[in-house]
Amino acid sequence: MKNKKLIKFVESFILLPVLTMSGMPMGNTMGSVSQAVANIVNAPFTALQKQNILTYESLALNDAIKKKLEDQKAKAVAIDEYFKARSMPLEGTGIKMVLEAEKNDLDWRLLPAIAVRESSGGKNACKKVQNSSFGWGSCKIGFNSNEHAIELVAFNLGGNNPKTSHHYDDKTTKQILRAYNPPSVVPLYVEQVISIMNAIGEADVVEVANT
Fold this sequence. Notes:
Layout: H1 2-22, H2 26-85, H3 94-103, H4 110-119, H5 146-157, H6 165-168, H7 173-180, H8 189-200, H9 205-210
């Protein structure tokens, strides 16, 4: 309906001058001119529709990215605040732990909770090797930095290291912890780490914060 009204409006300015200039009778050219005007009007409208779709998709993508970044930030803050409140040396590694957890499909609280259980967040890191706050390799394996340790431990716990994947691949968090430190070695290890995870925050920290 809007297109038809717009066509008539455009014709009131275009139609008569065109007919006058062409010298052709009005009846013989009405159909072709109307079609031409319709094409002029409809072409930009189609392009606009496409542009609107692209704009909507772009906004949706930007919104998804924004929410993702907010989620990562909230989780990192929760980890670092937990470390800070207890004067733990690993404070500031929260975002690294979150990103590595995402990369390896792990619960975002697992790495910090293991670090707390194993070394009080770096306070009692292994002495014989460097930057070993996770007790990885029974304190026989050192790392270039805490960030390096986070990367390697997450890589293994996510089941992505072919050498250790048979222990951790396709496992739940509790199963990962049982493989990391079997109940036969530390009977309440799983329960202790899970308790620390819950103290750090909820599984979906953003959803809880928004609620």
